[in-house]
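During the reporting period the student researcher (J.K.) took over the structure-prediction task from the postdoctoral fellow and processed the backlog of single-chain submissions. One of the processed entries is reproduced below for the supervisory committee.
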Amino acid sequence: MFKRLLALQKSNAGNDLKEELSTLRNWMLVPLTLWPIDIAGLVEHVCSVLEGKKPADGRLRFILDQLRELPSEKAQKAISEYEKFVEKGDYEPLIRSESKCKYSLSETELLKNPKIHEEWTTLKNLFDVDKYKDKKGIIRRRMAQERNFRNDWNFRWRKIHDRFQVAFDAFCHRWHLYGMEGDKPLLLKLTVNPTAHGLMIVIPSFWSFDLKRDLDAKKISKLHKSRGALRQGSKMSEGRLERHEQARQAYQANLDAKVKKLRGAPRNAFVRKKVRLPETFDDRSLRRLIKEGSTL
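J.K. obtained the following C-alpha cells:
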C-alpha cells in the first residue's frame, strides 16, 4: 500500500489531494497503536479511487481532513518503544514485579483447582471446541469494551457457534479468564494498554489492588504525557481558555491583514491593535500566537 501511494504521488494522479496523500504516507509510518481507524484500508481505498481516475467525494475528503494532524514525534517514539516490548512477548512493561508475583500465585491456585478442569471437560463434551481456536490454538471470550459498551451482546441460540460463545463467555466469567489455550485456562491480568484514544487500565475483579506496588506510576505517567496532555486545574484552564481566544483573534486578524495586503511591521501592528496586545508584545511571540490560532 505504501508503494502504491508513492507511485500515485509521483504520477501526479492525485494533484487535488497532494497534501492529503503526503499526510496519508506519514500515517502509514505511525505506530499501529495510534491509528484511529484502519489507515491501510483507507489508503487502499484512496489509491483505488485515484487509480480509477475518479474524484474523491465529500465524505472521503471529510475523513482525510480529520486525519490532517499526526501524533507528535514524542508520542510516536514512546508508543513505538512500548510496541517493541509487546513484540517480544512482554505485555507488562508498566506493571511492577510485585504484581507479577501476585499473578503467578493466583494462576497456580487456579491451575490446581480440579473444579475448573471438570467444567472445561464438560464444555468440551458439549461442543467441538477445536472449531473455535485461532491460529495460536487460543479461544477467546468476547472482549470487554471501554465505558462498558457491549457490541455483539444480544443473546443468540440459533447457530451452534452462538451457543458455544454464550457458554464460553459464562465459563470465562466464572473463572476470571480471557480465554483458553488448549486445556490451559488463561487468567485475567492487571494490564495497562495504550490505545489511539488514551490509556486503558484493567484491574481484574479478583485482584487485590495496590496502586503503589502494582503499577509503575512514573512509566505510565511518562507514556501518557507523551501524547501532549497539559497540566490542568481551574486556574490553569481559565488562563488557557483566554490564551486560546486571544490566539483565535490573532489568527483572524492576520487573515484580515492579508486581505488588506499588509506586510511586515504594518501587518504586525494591525494584528496587535485588533487583539489589543501591548506594543511590547514582540514579533516572535506574535507569530507563535497566530500559528497557535490556526490550529484551534
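The committee noted the following: The chain is about 55% helix and 5% strand.
J.K. will present the remaining backlog at the next meeting.
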